[in-house]
Design goal:
Length: 308
Amino acid sequence: MESKNNWKAWLYLAPALILMAVFTFYPLINTFVISFLKDFDYRSGANSGFTFDNYGLVLGIVENVPGVPESKITDFVQYALPNTLLITFVTVPISILIALLIAIGINSIPKLQKLLQTIFFMPYVTNVIAVGMVFAIIFSDKGIFNNLFGLTGTKWVSLGASWGNSMTILCLYIIWSALPYKILIFLSGLQGIDKQYYQAAKIDSASKWKTIRKITIPLLSPQILYITITSFIGAFKEYNAIIGLFNRNYTSTGNTHDLYTVVYYIYDQLDGNNPKMQIAAAAAVILFAIIMIFTVIQMWVSKKRVHY
């Protein structure tokens, strides 16, 4: 009987497993293989054999033109990776903290909870590109922000803006757009906490801050871990925000890719009449490895910090 039920289970899972095999596992394996192929032609599948040079080209170690040191391309290590790390380590902690505080605030107002949930969740179902265009208008040279604070002429998102100004607005946009989903997860976690813990804290005359620190945060630690891991992965894959906000990959000059992220770099290698798929694949594998390393570190830390 048990064997028969197992076959039924596999039968039910078969459609999902087939789709995952075709659209998830095969592309992953294929990407890994392509990253080691020299002069790969995606049209015919032809290549010049096995090589590690693709990774060297991405990391700026190998010369693009043999014998010419100046031909090394350092866009990945000079712009893409630093920008991605900056975005990740700035936006993720700030967005989690703000989302947690907002969720606690909403949870403490039962009468307006549904209304506030709807208001804060609206950005999550809004088109990312459309929202980016609105942000671009707000922070344009003659936009609302500059007029409101008397900063007329200051460039934030237009050509000629400094890297610092553009990155500030980009991080602000990413934080704002990341809040709704985090708030929703934290609210669901807060509503699952037994009220007797708060009643006991009230009887002991514990302050609100101490109650949050000693009860709310420890009991929300599984949700915090989940949000942290998914937020790190999402931040490492940031691409849409730059397209929606800037529609370009440079700031003060069109000759430097100083707003590159890792995913933007990957897409750029696939653009044009002669896409460098092997370079894009190598960069994708490096990104995958970085995400896996940070995920493993977070899981290791969670063993001592997360309370189920």
